[in-house]
Amino acid sequence: MSEMKKDEILEDQAQIAEPADEAAFDEIEAIRAERDEFRDRFMRALADAENSRKRAERDRREAEQYGGSKLARDLLPVYDALRRALDAAGDEQRAAASALIEGVELTLRELIKVFTKHGMEPIVPQVGDRFDPQQHQAMFEAPLPGTKAGDIIQVATEGFMLHDRLLRPAQVGVSSTPKS
Q1: What's the burial of 54, exposed, middle or buried (CB within 10 Å: 0-12/13-18/19+)?
Q2: CA 171 from chain center: how many Å?
Q3: Consecutive H or E run containing 14
Q4: Exposure pattern of 117-127 as b/e (b: 16+ CB <10 Å)?
Q5: What is this structure's pTM?
Q6: In 3D, which of 160, 59, 86 has the Cα closest to residue 116?
Q7: For a pLDDT cut of 70, what percent of the chain falls above it?
Q8: Which pLDDT belongs to residue 43?
Q9: Mean pLDDT along residues 154-168
């Protein structure tokens, strides 16, 4: 072939190759963009799966710890009734029905033991303690000489915590500022 013919062929190939290289470059860039999009979607899906796993684990722990809170709340009136029965029994009744009183005391102790086993702790405020709205519910407010405003002057019912959550606040009477 002649030298001129070779140059023409090479020139034609260069012209043909140039657009082909540009098309290949665009295709490679599109593939890279698609790869990056898939990588991003994969990483997001991985993060979502991890978050779902953590959420499920947290929900399982909460269900384990607090799942019985409705039953526990329903048992509190039984505790209150047993406590009131023991408080109402005078010395005369205790002497006359000592076996009955002992049975009620044992039942109450067993109930407290079950409560403790399942993470329930009583909130037992004392007269003279400061009112804490996080643990106490004020049932009434009255001025009482010799007290400061916010002091507990009467305890109506004990409260209970279930692990770190308030199950029932202690119901108390609170002193208001005493009138002079």
Answers
A1: exposed
A2: 24
A3: helix 3-66
A4: eebbeebebee
A5: 0.67
A6: 160
A7: 87
A8: 96
A9: 94
d(CA 56, CA 64): 12
Task: Report the alpha-carbon angle 107-119-105, nearest 5.
Answer: 15
Per the listing, tokens 């963009």 go with 33
Distance CA 49, CA 55 (A): 10
How many C-alpha atoms does 64 have within 13 Å on its Cβ side? 6
Pairing of strands 170-176, 136-143: parallel
Tokens 């004392």 correspond to 126
R_g of the chain, CA atoms, integer Å: 39
Residue bearing the bigger pLDDT, 9 or 68: 68
Q: Which of 178, 175, 126 is nearest to 155 (CA)?
A: 126
Q: What is the pLDDT of residue 73?
A: 92
Tokens 């012209």 sit on residue: 15
